[in-house]
Amino acid sequence: MIQWSQIPDRAAVREGILSTSVALKEYAHANPKETGVGLGLATAGLLLWYYGADLRHRYFAWINNKFADLKQEDYDNFKKTAFAALKDLASHDPKLREEKTLRILEIGAGVGANFIMYPDNTRLVVADPNPHFEQYFKDHKAKFPHIKCETVIIAKGEDIDMVRSESIDAVVTTLVLCSVDDIAKVVSQIKRVLVPGGKYIFVEHIKEWDRKNHWMRRHIQNILTWSGFWPFTFDGCYLNRNPQPIIEAVGFSDVKVEREYAPMPAAFMMVAAPHLKGVATK
How does pLDDT run across 104-115, given as a tens digit for each residue? Predict the structure, then answer.
């Protein structure tokens, strides 16, 4: 423990500051190039620290919109087997049931890549923590007039307490659980908002499970994640997660899952080809 007697008096502190200032001035005068580079890096570091999260959100929204322009027919077909659970699902709301529509909550809707999966007259509630998806979402939504967007919530999946318990017919997450802070809390929130008999539809990339035939991909996933490169580049995405045990442990009445390799729309995305998809029923 530091004793008060060990703390220098004001005069000593002032002298130390002055001597340090003189030393820095002398160094800057003798090494102007190195000083300029150092100040530049320090400034860039401060700006990145202050604006970094917002810049990553903006970049992630932009890059997701670019991915949406890629030919994804094979990947959409891959997802359809999970979304088929919506076909015979009836709403708990008498009025919506009469209109033969559903109230669906999508967590992490992004640019709206799943619009094509939703049945006619869908009532959509959206929760996404990234406000920079807004314009891309609106532009894409204009192509799907059969979907009515009831509410857009700027919030993480862990923080959707404003959605009433047992008010949602189906919840959807696709490529979302890889980047949430607390998978168990998100899945518990999903179970809470679902009506009895409601469906949770998920399509998520996961950690490579085939150690024998795809050991290299597993190592690459770990390296890209542990180094921080992939999470930094793709706004918190972790390549080496597996949410299956958590989904199965939360308390759904039935969980049907399957592991498959998804047809990715770009070669560099094959590192995320191992997928978990399925349907959990409350």
Answer: 999 999 999 999
Q: Residue 65, Cβ neighbours under 10 Å: how many?
A: 20
| 3-class DSSP state of 149 | strand
CB 124 within 8 A of CB 152: no
Q: Contact, 222 vs 193, CB < 8 A?
A: no
**Are 244 and 276 a contacting pair, CB within 8 Å?**
yes
Query: Mean pLDDT for the chain?
Result: 86
276 contact partners, CB below 8 Å, separation of at least 6: 202, 203, 204, 205, 206, 242, 243, 244, 257, 258, 259
Question: Given the DSSP bridges, would you call strands 168-174 and 194-205 parallel, antiparallel or unpaired?
Answer: parallel
Whole-number Å distance between alpha carbons of 190 and 187: 5
pLDDT given at position 101: 93
End-to-end Cα spacing for the chain: 55
Q: Which residues of 28-47 are buried (b: 16+ CB within 10 A; e: fewer)?
A: eeeeeeeeeeeeeeeeeeee
3 state SS of 99: coil
- Interacting residues of 99 by C-beta distance below 8 A, sequence separation 6+: 121
